[in-house]
Amino acid sequence: MVDDFEGIAAVDRERIAPFLVRRALTAGSLVYEDGATQVFSSDGMTTYVEDGRVSAGEWTVDETGRFASFWPPHYTAEYDLRWLVEDGRIVGLRFLGRDSVPFVGRYRTGE
Questions:
Q1: Domain ranges of the chain
Q2: Where is 73: in which H helix or E strand?
Q3: Residue 48 φ/ψ region, left for φ over 0, alpha for ψ in the -120 to 50 degree band, beta for the rest
Q4: Which of 26, 44, 81, 96 can pair with 16 through a Cys bridge, CB separation 3.0 to 4.6 Å?
Q5: pLDDT in tens, 73-99
Q6: Which among 49, 50, 51, 72 has a CA at the least distance from the CA of 59?
């Protein structure tokens, strides 16, 4: 659980406001449902770890709040981000892509 969201009244599955997307992504490392983890750095870099394999990529957010990630050499994905809220607290993010199955990342506890 991260405490970087004081004062934000988030609703589960609500689209994250464009001005909050960077804050949401960099608030802490995420753990996905399959056990993979990901960290988004404020410099636009990201590290994804799945079964011990580390992948480095880049991320951006446009003025509409749409999140995009680039994984060399050619893969790019775009997502709308939505809050994951439980018991009134932000606990993670929902990634909704145009051409992919939605997935959920939970902030790693203890950070």
A1: 18-107
A2: none
A3: beta
A4: 81
A5: 999 999 999 999 999 999 999 999 877
A6: 72
